[in-house]
Write a structure and sequence with these properties.
Layout: E1 19-24, E2 27-32, H1 37-43, E3 50-51, E4 58-59, E5 72-75, E6 78-82, E7 93-96
Parallel strand pairs: 1-7
Antiparallel strand pairs: 1-2, 3-4, 5-6, 5-7
The structure holds FE2/S2 (inorganic) cluster.
FE2/S2 (inorganic) cluster (FES) binds next to loops.
Length: about 100
Amino acid sequence: MKTDSKFQRMVAPERSPQTVEFFWEGKPYTAHVGDTIAAALLAAGVDHTRESPQSGAPRAPFCMMGSCFECRVQVNGEHNVQACMNVIEDGMLICRQTS
Ligand code: FES
């Protein structure tokens, strides 16, 4: 798992958040209950979540509010899921979108 993420959580030390496990590209990661998929992926150190179908350029969450559509991923086999607009769930299978 990557740990060099520039996206860092602000959690009070006395709080111990509940967690869920999800899978990114087949590897297990942990997220906080209530995280959006985008927040969970960024906190896990994922550097890009899809690739442009035209150029293959890496793309990643940008606006975090549902406007740019750069965060689209595949979730449990469903394409074009906006990662910033959906809450992560235990056992989710998330993959980079390449088409
Ligand atoms: S990050 Fe812009 S729509 Fe999700």
